[in-house]
Amino acid sequence: MSKARPYEDEILQTVRGMPPEALPRVLELITVVREEFRTGEKPRASSPNTSHERTRGLVASSKTNWAQSLLAERDDRL
């Protein structure tokens, strides 16, 4: 008996218990996981250039103080 069999049974039971409108999303997720294992790569975020350094650069290049701008906007709503 394969070690994967209990997982397969649980997956099938779970999928069979889901509403039909959820099945396209389930298939999409299964496809993503399959591709991840096939290529050995994890899917990247939609913006691969977002990093801590880039965020710090954006904040440093801002001409205004973001915290004060947020407080001012909040004061306007009160």
Could you provide a short overview of the structure?
With 78 residues, the protein is an all-alpha fold.
What are the secondary-structure elements, in order, as H or E? HHHH
Quickly give the structural class: mainly alpha
Helix content: 55-70%
Strand content: under 5%
Report the major sheet: none
Tell me the span between the first and last alpha carbons.
66 Å
Categorize the overall geometry. Answer: elongated
The overall strand count is 0
| Helix count, DSSP H or I runs of 4 or more residues | 4
The residue-averaged pLDDT reads: 79
Low-confidence stretches: none
Query: What is the alpha-carbon Rg in Å?
Result: 23 Å
Commentary on this structure:
There is one protein chain. With 78 residues, the protein is mostly helical. It has a domain at 5-39. 65% of the residues lie in helices and 0% in strands. It is built from four helices and no strands. It is elongated, with a radius of gyration of 23 Å. It starts with a helix and ends with a helix.
Supply the key terms.
mainly alpha, 4 helices
What is this structure's SSE topology?
Blueprint: H1 5-16, H2 23-39, H3 52-61, H4 66-77
